[in-house]
Amino acid sequence: MSLLEQIMTGLQPGPRRLLLYGTQGVGKSTFVASSESPIFIQTEDGLGEIGCDKFPVAETFEQVMTALTELYTQSHRYRTVAIDSLDWLERLIWNDVCRKRNVTNIEDIGYAKGYTFALNYWREFLEGLTALRRDKGMTIVLIAHAKIEKFENPETESYDRYVPRLHKLVSAMIQEWCDEVLFATYKVHTKQTEEGFGRKGTRGIGTGERILRTSERPAHMAKNRLNLPDEIPLDWNAYANHFTHLKTGGVSREPEAETPNTQASSRRRSGSSQSRTEGVLQHG
Q1: Which of 45, 68, 181, 203 is most buried by a 10 A CB count?
Q2: Which residue has the higher pLDDT, 207 or 48?
C-alpha cells in the first residue's frame, strides 16, 4: 500500500494526554479517580482516602516501568493510567542517576549534566506511555504539584507564576508531549479595603470553589487543544464533555476492504510495533 493510499482526512482523535498540576490538596487525584476505569501508578503515598485501583507505591524508577509493562503486556479492564505524581517520580529518577554515577546528589555531577542524564529516563517513560495510548487505547494523566517561580518575560518585567514542580528541561518536554496542561486551583476574588489615612489594600476572598485553568495567563502556565473555556470546574465530566464529541465528529475515510496481502502486511506492522515497544518497556 502506497503512502497516498494511507492518507487520513478529517478528525483523528486519540486518547487524551493530560498534565494536571495544582496546589496541594485541591483535589487532583480525586479528579482523576472519576475518569474512565482508572489505574494509578503511585510514586508517593497519598491515595489512602480515595477509592481507586492503584499499584503499590513505587520506590524505584524500575518499578514504575514494570507497572507500565504489566499494563501493556497483560489483559486488564483499565482505560486510564495516572502517574501520581511526576515530581516524586523525578526524585526516583535522580536517585537512579546518582546510583549509577556513584554520587550522593545530582548536583555533584558537574556542569549540570545530571539533569541531562535524567532526560533519558523521561524519554523512556514517555515511550512507554505512548505505547499504552497507541496500542491499548489508554488515556494518560500525569499529576504534579505546583510551585511558584520567576518568569523572565522578554516583553515585560519579570513576574511570579505557577508552574509544575519539575526541572525546567523535564517540564518543557512533558508540556510539549501532552495535549492539555491544566492548572487546578481555588477560585479567588479580590476586594479593595480601606486601611485608613487614605490608604487602600487588596484582600483575597475564597469561596472554596475548585476550578481548572485551561489557557496560559501571567499567573500560570496552561494549554489545551480542545478550545476549552479559560476556566472549567474541577470535575472530570466537565473536562470530558469537551472531547467525547470528537469521537463522532469530522470526516474519515471509509476503510478499504482487506485482501490477503493487506491483512498480512497489517499483521507484520502490528507485530513489529509491539516487539519494539515491549523491548523499550522491558529495558527499564
Answers
A1: 181
A2: 48
Give the containing element (helix H, strand E) for 185.
strand 180-196
* Helix, strand, or coil (residue 254): coil
Which set of grid coordinates corresponds to residue 27?
A: 483535589
Residues found in the chain: 284
For the chain, which residues make up each domain, given as ranges?
15-283
| Chain centroid to CA 232 | 18
Where residue 243 falls among pLDDT bands split at 50, 70, 90?
Answer: confident
For 165-189, the pLDDT digits (tens) are: 999 999 999 999 999 999 999 997 6
How many other C-beta atoms are found inside a 10 Å radius of the C-beta of residue 5? 9
Is-cis flag, bond preceding 252, omega within 30?
Answer: no
Can you tell me which residue has the cell 512507554?
Answer: 128
Q: Does 63 score more than 80 pLDDT? A: yes
- Whether residue 58 contacts residue 67, with contact meaning beta carbons closer than 8 Å, is answered with yes
